[in-house]
Prior knowledge:
Blueprint lengths: L1 H28 L5 H9 L6 H6 L10 H12 L2 H28 L2 H8 L2 H12 L6 H15 L1 H5 L9 H31 L6 H26 L5 H7 L4 H28 L2 H11 L2 H10 L5 H40 L1
Amino acid sequence: MRWPRIALYTIFVLCGQTVATLLTRLYFEKGGTSKWVGTLAQVIGFPIILPYYISQRKSLTTPNSSAAAAADVKTKSTSLLLLVCVYVYFGLLAAGNAYLYTVGFEYLPVSTVALISASQLAFNAFFSYFLNSQKFTPFIINSLVLLTISSVLLVANNGSERPPGVSNGKYVLGFICTIFATAAYGLSLASQQLAFRKVLKKQSFKIVVELIIYQSLVASIVTSIGFFSSGDWKHLKRERDIYLLGKVSYVMTLVWTAVAWQVFVFGGVALVFELSALFSNVIGALGLPITPIAAMLVFHDKMSGIKGISMVLAIWGFVSYAYQHYLDDRQLNAETKKASEASEA
């Protein structure tokens, strides 16, 4: 049942990322101006998983398993202060990452954000190498190179485009903020993998859901402080009234943006738990060339052969990485079988 779960989480990441990216850009495209509103929409959607967490709380753990029982003992021994520090750390990273990406979405075209976001592979590989001793096989290196090239190609098609009314200074600011956002995202995924191994030691899906809830809660609190301190809340009614798609569409855009980002975060953290931070990042990178294709339909961007080549390279890179995990699983199963036969003999 492991690979069907991984396939489901992959769908969550790809669909959530694409929809959330387009809706975030749509908010600014049709009259939205508040960076803090755009940031809140990225982190405040966690209540949608609370009913699932409450109703499935017992089934998310496996109390009858001796391994789970041993893990429970380890988890209970983890100090409350350490857990609070872990959740606050991830919450602050999530809030900073969301704000930086929001600046990028406001000042840059969707495809440019996708291009810069390709660097998250390099950042994540760097952090995973030091935090999680990530090994680089030829298939993994091939995957990273192909996925990076697939996103870099996008600049040839959209390098001269920028949203109307954006000055050179704002364009550079958006570029820099997006780079820092990708670095923060790569660090967050690598840190999550480390936390699952060293701190959140109970190997159950309950840990994944709790991490998402608590980090999103911290991020929402921090972002709300910024939102009210900046005074943006005073302009919400006016912004809703002048929104080009209407008042109802304004609310629905923000609501579904929050839902889409939460689906993306849920899938990403689940993939870190199931496999690794680098795999989760590769799946995210696979969706980067998809976003400009979707933007073509939503924002009427022009289609080009470069975008088609970019998508082919992205799929090729993903297959390369997935094949490496298939080889790893096959080797692990073979070693487990040998160990079992040796113990029976």
